[in-house]
Amino acid sequence: MTHALVVDDSRSMRSILGRILRGFGMDVEEAPDGRAALDRLVEGERPDVALVDWHMPNMTGVELVSEVRSRPELAGMTIVMVTSESEPDQIGLALAAGADEYIIKPFTPDAVADKLAMLGIGPGASGCNQTGEGTAP
Amino acid sequence: MTVAVPEFQYLRDVLHKHSAIVLADDKQYLVEARLAPIARDLGFDSVEDVVREMRRGDRGLQDRVVEAMTTNETSWFRDVHPFNALRDTILPELIDRNRESRTLSVWSAACSTGQELYSVALLLDAHFSEVEYWNLELLGTDLNNTVVDRARAGSFSGLEINRGLPAAMIARYFVRDGANFVIHARLRNKVRFEKFNLAAQWTGLPTFDLILLRNVLIYFDQPTKKQILDAACRQLAPWGYLAMGGAESPIGITDTLETVAIGGATFYRPEGR
């Protein structure tokens, strides 16, 4: 079973994303901010994919992504930003920090499925791979 | 709430006459869903009143209703596999073949709001810099004027941008305009969108290296499917490729195409080229 971590300071957003991901057959954990998520990861909890908001107290999503990518012991985890921060320059900044994909709020369950499938995760993932641009620098 | 049978049948006849689209008996809910916004916009009390007004001969209203009834489902790099095949196999082959003429022609034959054709334009720009100064004919057509206008604008909502467009491409090729995302003018200037009825006489089309006729034939009856597919074959270069939707096939419609499987995608080429 795919293990997902949802990191968002909004309880309702965690609930919405959790419901969508559980609907895809995933096991879902939640964290209310970047610091809490990092503590959990350092303690040894290793999700296959983390869906991370940008603006959160204690540690932002992009700071969390940078932290995760700087730690070799956390290598290989897929990270998708899920945020209302939608300026193309900001999207580029999140990708440069190490995010694998990006979902703009508001979103539909189909959008989550599409993006996860592009990363080889979730219900639409069988045999799918990137269009070639998603992981480009 | 559903539309009464006489109104539904009238609407079905109009739709078939003007677009050759077949509306099944169980699609009354679709009529209500698609036409309720028009009824609201124009101040009619119900969808039935809209249809009654059409029956009085309001041609403008008829066009608007036909447009609303045509399906506009689309997304970026839809189904992934065909676009991987384009990137890895078909576009390199076509570019190699056309290197002398420096031309490449692609037709998205039911383009809706343009994501399919823009996806091809994005692939070309991101992976095939060689064609930047080629004579590119990237044409998108649709029966529906409203979606053609939207495709020309190249402006998409956040919800649309979320559907299958890699984040790196959003960052590289889009700018914000209010709540929308607008594709760079450099890309927008490489594509052309026109209104075109696949079920009518085809005139003024060039020969294409690649025709994307995806998820559209399913809406037509068998004779119209054959008419459209035969016409598409005539527009396809002998070395060209044709794509259909994942659940579609030319088998039983025409025997002039041979199947080519590339990765998880299926394309079709003229038989005995």
For this entry, give a set of tags.
heterodimer; A: 137 residues; alpha/beta; Rossmann fold; 5-stranded parallel β-sheet; disordered C terminus; B: 273 residues; Chemotaxis Receptor Methyltransferase Cher, domain 1; 2 domains; 7-stranded mixed β-sheet; 3-stranded antiparallel β-sheet; 43% helix; 21% strand
Descriptive notes:
The complex is a heterodimer of chains A (137) and B (273). With 137 residues, chain A is an alpha/beta fold. Chain A has one domain (3-118): 3-Layer(aba) Sandwich (Rossmann fold). Chain A is built from five helices and five strands, in the order βαβαβαβαβα. Chain A has helices at 11-23, 34-42, 61-70, 88-97, 109-118; strands at residues 3-7, 27-31, 49-52, 78-83, 101-104. Chain A has a five-stranded parallel beta sheet, with helices on both faces. Chain A starts with a strand and ends in a 19-residue tail after the last helix. Chain B is built from eleven helices and ten strands. Chain B folds into two domains: 5-69, Chemotaxis Receptor Methyltransferase Cher, domain 1; 81-270, Vaccinia Virus protein VP39 (Rossmann fold, 3-Layer(aba) Sandwich). Chain B has helices spanning 5-19, 28-42, 47-55, 59-69, 81-97, 115-127, 145-153, 158-161, 167-173, 185-188, 222-235; strands at 103-108, 135-142, 155-156, 174-177, 180-183, 191-195, 208-213, 236-244, 257-262, 265-270. The model of chain B has no long low-confidence stretch (mean pLDDT 91). Chain B is globular. The N and C termini of chain B lie far apart (53 Å). Chain B is 43% helix and 21% strand. Chain B is of the alpha/beta class.
